[in-house]
Amino acid sequence: MAASPETVRNFLNALSRRIRPVFIDRMESWSAYAQIREMMSGDLQAHDMAYICRREAEQHYESVDITESGLERAHPDARIFSVQDVTAGEHLGRLYIDPYDRESKRGGWNTLLGRSGLLRVHVDQNNLTALVESQSRGLDKLVYLVGSAIAPTENAPSLLHYQQLQQLLFHVGRAVQMLLSRSPYRDIAVPWAPFYASDWDAMDMFPAFVQFFLYKPSLLQSLSSPHLKSGATISDEQANNICLALSRSTLWESYRSLFWSDFDLTIFEMEDRKQKFWLDIYREMSREYFPFKPDRNDYHPCSFIPIFGLQPYMGMYY
């Protein structure tokens, strides 16, 4: 957690000075790509950016779309792993992994703490409550990693889209976070809804750190399997191009999040909330950040999904 709003403001100002020139330069590249490759005659609008950023990045680094290549996949059984700290010789718990989607399965990617490593046991003497190791009762920590990857077939392994690989890395980080937690209470180890009074600030820090492995060429090579037909592995140049393309395609979301952070902090810093309406502030800052002409009925803060769409994140996102 930042020590003060001034610390956050200084961070946002420094980040804005670095990323805003890149965004302005990238807008020229996006516009040129849209006109030449997508046959778009008008100016780019905010609703074009998610598609154009991804397509321009793929074209820039010569990515190959294999969506229609006809690869077949099937469903395997779930796996159970015993997780141990080899340096201390300590058993951390069991990890249940059910990675593949199927008709009878509900939900998407998720990681759940089924049972903590310590149990709260009532002690009669002096009416106290004590913590007793679960191992003494034959119970250890259980963590469930549930995925929705497309299952393999008899002739081909499960091939992950990069967004699925991002999800997998994030939830592997969450599983490690839960396995290493020393909290005897599930709702403190990783905050759960509706426990909004818990400390949510760094909940996603380690999972996001693991997710960034995807943007490091050497780590991407380690995560990649040989080509299905030729058996060739990803070369250094290919891995570097893939990472550059993925990084390039995320600039729009990064810049938009920076804008939302600035807007969120600006509202927080207002001494008198009645001195200016929040939508007027949003429109002023939007003109400063973006070249798009807003529609009179645009209410873009409502697309700020982490704040407006996910209850646990209210009041803690930045």
From TrEMBL:
<dbReference type="GO" id="GO:0004222">
    <property type="term" value="F:metalloendopeptidase activity"/>
</dbReference>
<dbReference type="GO" id="GO:0046872">
    <property type="term" value="F:metal ion binding"/>
</dbReference>
<comment type="similarity">
    <text>Belongs to the peptidase M3 family.</text>
</comment>
<dbReference type="Pfam" id="PF01432">
    <property type="entry name" value="Peptidase_M3"/>
</dbReference>
<keyword id="KW-0645">Protease</keyword>
<feature type="domain" description="Peptidase M3A/M3B catalytic">
    <location>
        <begin position="1"/>
        <end position="66"/>
    </location>
</feature>
<protein>
    <recommendedName>
        <fullName>Peptidase M3A/M3B catalytic domain-containing protein</fullName>
    </recommendedName>
</protein>
<keyword id="KW-0479">Metal-binding</keyword>
<dbReference type="InterPro" id="IPR001567">
    <property type="entry name" value="Pept_M3A_M3B_dom"/>
</dbReference>
<feature type="domain" description="Peptidase M3A/M3B catalytic">
    <location>
        <begin position="71"/>
        <end position="318"/>
    </location>
</feature>
<keyword id="KW-0378">Hydrolase</keyword>
<dbReference type="InterPro" id="IPR045090">
    <property type="entry name" value="Pept_M3A_M3B"/>
</dbReference>
<dbReference type="GO" id="GO:0006508">
    <property type="term" value="P:proteolysis"/>
</dbReference>
<keyword id="KW-0482">Metalloprotease</keyword>
<keyword id="KW-0862">Zinc</keyword>
